[in-house]
Amino acid sequence: MIITIDGPVASGKSTVAKTLAQKLGYHFLNTGLMYRAVAFLLMKKFNYDEKNLLCPTRKAVEVCLDVDKFIYFADGKGASIFYDGVDITSFLKTPEMDRASSVLSACISVRKILLTLQKKLAKDINIVADGRDTGSVVFPDAKYKFYLTASLEERARRWRLAEALKGVLIAEDEAKKLIKERDQRDMKRDIAPLIVPEGAITIDNTGLTEEETLQKFLSFIK
Question: Pick from 18, 64, 69, 215: CA 20 to 30 A from residue 80's CA?
């Protein structure tokens, strides 16, 4: 069975997807982390920057996603990505990679390659997948599709807290501005924009704890 959770940045979708997968004994697929990884590798290996990430060469993308080097791994602690034996996950969770992955995700050739990989990873297993198009594009026939959201103020608060834990301090107004910009990029892009998937259950977790959010999801899954 496949369960998808889509939603805007800082809505808490990866957190609940991970805990839901644990609770159900399912695999966890963080599709957004894959875009961050490809963006990171393109910038480090091929000297791309945010301005030209929209149109990387197919050869460069294929090198980054070499099946013998690019490894996606998930356990109870979350998702990790290894490249050529090195865990690169810690480099992917930065504001720079957030912006870069948003630009890269609008590239149709990259989306096609990652779509194939994501479907391959989910073949013949029970999985909880999160991202921005998992229910609308990647797994449109998923058994359960959710759209998780929260108020701008709540998402800005969570994002600032997450960044502060990494030693990065962001003012509230700046956080709101960056989140609005990311929302616009995700919702306005021509390829697989962020939408509420057809048939999805919308959950607003403003003011809810992680456990309360999890219980909301479980209440819909039979």
Answer: 215
